[in-house]
Amino acid sequence: MVRADDVHDRALLEKVRPPDWQNPEPLARYHLVVIGAGTAGLVAAAGAATLGARVALIEKHRLGGDCLNYGCVPSKALLGSAHAAAAARAADELGVKVTGPVEVDFARVMERMRRLRAQLARDDAAARFRDLGAHVFLGSARFVAPDAVEVEGKRLRFRRALIATGARPAVPEVPGLREAGYLTNETVFALTALPPRLAVIGGGPVGCELAQAFARFGSEVVLIGRAPRLLPRDDPDAAALLATRLGREGVQLILGGAVRRVERRGAAKQLIIEQAGAEQTAQVDEILVAAGRAPNLEGLELAAAGVRAGSRGIEVDQRLRTHNRRIYAAGDACSAFQFTHAADAMARVVVQNALFYGRKRARDLVIPWCTYTDPEVAHVGLGAAEAAERGRAVHTFTVPLSEIHRAVLDGQSEGFARAHVDGRSGRLLGATLCARHAGESIAELALLMTARLGVRALSATIHPYPTQAEALRRLGDAAQRARLTPGVRRLFARWFRWWE
Predict the structure, then answer these.
(1) Which of 117, 364, 411, 455 is the most exposed place for a label (fewest CB within 10 A)?
(2) Please, are residues 295 and 165 in contact by the beta-carbon 8 Å criterion?
(3) Helix residue ranges, H only, 35-171
(4) In angstroms, rounded to a whole number, what is the distance separating the alpha carbons of residues 366 and 497?
């Protein structure tokens, strides 16, 4: 949601939904027609056009998709301000005196977000893709044949097509919720006044990030999650550590609970919540729904193209082909990995497979993810339980941040680095980092998995001292020490006796 009366939002729209945009006349046939101009669509369109393919890019709303308009970009701008507020409040612990209470100017926080979003929109602008050689069509697309789509009354034929229409917030069917009104990630960034009391429905990444941010801005926040813990896809110890931190920062957690109904109480909204068979209430000013995502497939007329879809999105094979081999899908419209970087990687697979008869497989992608709370929780690969379920012999190594000098010196010693290693090959099966900058370090572990290197390579890699990334070297050292079995120790003992 953008505001027409805001200078920054107008600048955003000038780039990603120009009001005077004229759709071009279609070519006889395109090498690639891309439906959806979020991350997957933009990466595929830019890559194909740069290589010289005839490309059409169709967008129903605004170029940039969820990431630019409602997701990564605006949320991380807010988190930057929230981190600053928290750092100011904690400054005394580092010997820095802050006189008086820390005040957050929420209107300025949001104005900064809108300004930066409009600035970064240059990379997703319609004019940029036109200049790359793509035909940019603004409007709703629908399939009219196995090899053709229609947009704004114009028929576009293709050799290959990519469906990259993304996903939207899933809204639970809670009696009274729609009547009371609610926010999602598509509307929360339009706020200009801080809600004094905020309920967050959902204990996943979006819910946790925004719950912490609004608490740091000064809202009274209650977070309700259906699962018995936060971040169900992540390491349980990391989730528990985050829950402790959120509680310490004033976020009330109701986990293993469900909102049964919502009632209006004057200007307030009252949530009736069931937890462990008992009911409790929470009275708030705003409700933020962050309870999952649903694929955007409405109006595409997939049946006309022979494309099949289910509740989780478009059905694709490992090469990201749909049941119509001319048509591919990538990103949130078809993937369980609903991250910008995953959509980017999948789009690259599509370009290779669709235009050059490639044989790249989505299952070969090593996709890390990160929840940008404080501390951040980053993960890649399998967890210990998943690996065991697959019959892998797993050795798990953990290095607490309290043992890492830089983390202690920075006052950031809550957290850990953890690696799950194949007991036979020594290769990394998965890892979790829980630290202030975990998202910056997880790529080193993802590279290790992509290159199929043993985790002991971390021990042989020189890491600058002092850095928090030194925890990764210590993981490698731990794996090396694990090789010192009693038998190996006996061999060393014999060697040193001989060497005397």
Answers:
(1) 364
(2) yes
(3) 39-50, 65-69, 72-89, 106-120, 126-132
(4) 46
